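Field reference: sequence -> structure
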Amino acid sequence: MKPLGSVLAFTRERNAALLRAYRKQVGSARFIRLDEIGERVVNSPAERFWVSEERAAVVVSAMMRGKPVLDNMRPAKREMFEEIYRRVVALKKLHPDWCLRDLAHVVVNSPAPKFYMKASSALERLFKIRNGWYDRGKGNYSF
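Structure field:
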């Protein structure tokens, strides 16, 4: 588990992707209901899996060894790692000589079917982006 308050290396990139998905959903909505918009945002395709390659390799390795690493995860995170695991296993069949680190790199950086987070978490992040919370020492966002 990452320490409270730690910032992922790709936070800016993930937030920009969330904002793009939000704008797309708001632009195509006939009526704006935040709960519905939030669900559409988190269930829209993402350009990658929003987890580090290192963490994905550690979790997939544990899954391969039969360790119960998914037991204490939130449902969305568990679903994400199950999808990563499934893709790693399939890719390993195509490239049996690749190490787990390389497999995880390819999978994590490939398009994901969704953002794998709760709608309320996505909306909270979007509000923080709009209010400048991430800008305090963490770069700028253009709106």
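Note: Residues 75-94 form the longest helix (20 residues).
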